[in-house]
Amino acid sequence: MQERHHVVVVGGGFGGLQLVNDLKGAPVKVTLIDRRNHHLFQPLLYQVATTVLATSEIAWPIRRLYRDRQEVTTVLGEVAGVDTIAKEVTLAHGQSVPYDTLVLATGATHAYFGHDEWAAVAPGLKTLEDATTIRRRVLIAFEQAEVEEDPARRDALLTFTIIGAGPTGVELAGIIAEMAHRTLPGEFRRIDTRLARVVLVEAGPRILPAFSEELSAYASRELEKLGVEVLTGTPVTDCTDEGVTIGESFVPSRTLVWAAGVQASPAARWLGADADRAGRVKVGPDLTAPHRPDIFVIGDTASVIQEDGKPVPGIAPAAKQQGAYVAQVIRGRLTGSPAPGPFRYRHQGSLATIGKRAAIIDFGRIKLRGSLAWWIWGIAHIYFLIGTRSRFAVAWSWLWTYLSGQHSARLITQKDTLREER
Amino acid sequence: MQERHHVVVVGGGFGGLQLVNDLKGAPVKVTLIDRRNHHLFQPLLYQVATTVLATSEIAWPIRRLYRDRQEVTTVLGEVAGVDTIAKEVTLAHGQSVPYDTLVLATGATHAYFGHDEWAAVAPGLKTLEDATTIRRRVLIAFEQAEVEEDPARRDALLTFTIIGAGPTGVELAGIIAEMAHRTLPGEFRRIDTRLARVVLVEAGPRILPAFSEELSAYASRELEKLGVEVLTGTPVTDCTDEGVTIGESFVPSRTLVWAAGVQASPAARWLGADADRAGRVKVGPDLTAPHRPDIFVIGDTASVIQEDGKPVPGIAPAAKQQGAYVAQVIRGRLTGSPAPGPFRYRHQGSLATIGKRAAIIDFGRIKLRGSLAWWIWGIAHIYFLIGTRSRFAVAWSWLWTYLSGQHSARLITQKDTLREER
Lengths: 422, 422
Hints:
The structure is a homodimer of 422-residue chains.
Chain A: E1 5-10, H1 14-22, E2 28-34, E3 38-40, H2 45-49, E4 59-61, H3 62-65, E5 72-76, E6 79-83, E7 88-91, E8 96-98, E9 101-104, E10 108-111, H4 128-147, H5 151-157, E11 159-163, H6 167-183, E12 197-202, H7 213-225, E13 228-232, E14 236-239, E15 243-246, E16 249-252, E17 255-258, E18 261-264, H8 267-271, E19 281-282, E20 288-289, E21 292-297, E22 302-303, H9 316-335, E23 350-354, E24 358-362, E25 367-370, H10 371-384, H11 387-404
Parallel strand pairs in A: 1-2, 1-9, 2-5, 9-21, 11-12, 11-17, 12-13, 19-22
Antiparallel strand pairs in A: 3-4, 6-7, 7-8, 10-18, 14-15, 15-16, 20-21, 23-24, 24-25
């Protein structure tokens, strides 16, 4: 009996899971490698960072998802390298996994534009640990302010700066402002949390550049209503544990969050392939790596320029579409059916929330804003979660937050290596 | 206007919260100091360690609980010392808090009977971090076993040892066994998780010594049905990251959990007071520290011998009763009403669960076991949680686990300082 064609997938994010899902019934065996044991619903990670959701509400053990697919093997491991001649993936714990077809869907991390020293003071938001780090720092800042005698230091503790005004930055700024102005007042005896400053800094000319100018302007106004100071057109030039320098001016701020740049995973290095400035592998129109028809690269770690010259954005729906496309290509190759045309990204719309009552949706022709958009946003996100358990749990947490104004997960956990506190 | 009598409470556990709750309306101002920002429902902590519940389901921000009691101030801080002459508490961040009456309710941590080096390999279960540490180690052991080539090492990875067979040890062993034998099978491709060994070691002659012999024997049988090996009458003599030595014999086991001894917090040292072997302050019949009528010590950090010579057990209901009693004493002193008699502990019964279908309840005269006891146990614990949000969330998680056999929170988070894995 001939051994089944072996597809090795590295990365259990949106692209990788869609691919494995769509390979169901194909004449393949699949090995799915991830360095984490869970798939993470990154679009809601900011809600863990801001105490609305619990970690387990937006993460699922990957192994569980493919329990009933006997041809799928899940491996917890970190890739050390790819041998494209021997056709095998080497894992850091020593195991070698041979492949017939390899799909790299390893995502991206945050980039500090050559200032890696900012990472310690301005954490990004990509993993559950990032989220609990930000949550801890935000909560501790209020606690430290409560016992701080010096007014200048107290003000710096009550100033929260978000760097980068894409959806994540906007969503973080909105919820932190709501927390300071609506959730926490009354709980402290010496500080007035309503005096907290939330500063959203964007180097570009406007926030949420993926949206229309009109929606972007609306989002700015809504953020300002929540008490967020929106600063556009000025880059951040320095970050320290005392504050942030925006252009020439220093803003004392003890809590910084980085929501600006991303840097692809080292997939390009593993392959010795050409990469763009963000480290993404420049793939062909069928998403294969250059000169490697047996290796696909998808999601945030691929740079895809479509026929019309437009790049594919680094967002979850794009990764999913790429996963589905590659499954179709692999299936076609094995069954001899004609190959699909080049990958084409279908934009389904952009969504972002501003606090807990407003959102904006840009479907191209149809644009929505306000509370109707917020409900659509909420329902869409619950729909995209995996499984009944999470859908109920998230719906319950949101309903609770909506009705009570309280957040469910206001926990300071783990020690901080940066600041061993007071 | 005379300044109100100032009660300073250190520790927001069961005893501290009961005290503050019961001081409502008394002519006092209260400062509640805790080094954590949350109250933790410790009796369910083992369910976080075993992936059934999420961290935020059993923890509440203390500050939130007293938001509407203007006379209560919450301080996040660690006590550095107590000056009993100046009557003030010094915090590690430098703040001094003067008191008229001081209540120390600072709990206990695990004790390794002079073998502190075991702490790194056999974590105890007292904090949320302890729970996520144990959760991570248990989950990673299965993952490592899946990729381990050497059979002896694989067997050691699939052997889980719980040291100490009080309620926590029994509950941990039961759920880990259920996870290995019922939740995980089918998810791994190379190992059979049903072959995992769960070993429960107890130095004393039987498990659950607080229960009747009959219920204790029943619990043993139920554990054995779940696949737990129960070893009584033999002490653990060594713990390493390779395994555990029980009496003279070495059991290769890569995951150890410590549920054996406790050691009181340093309250006795702060006061320079007499302590028992576990470090607990030997308090008088009214729970005051020796020669310090203005200082009360309650809960796990107090050693109380009642008039009939019986010690008060170190469990949540006892701490709550002590908190209520001290509130009554303080109130009486300030209003001139007669002092209550000496503290008397009323035992309301002992509860423990074995896995997800059986429990034992010892009300003294009435003894229950099996699934009825399990339902009573579950309803009682939901009742004791704080607030509608948690009650719903925990009820939902349990219902889900009960119906689906799946656990909600199977996440490996945070790196482990002990084992940087493979």
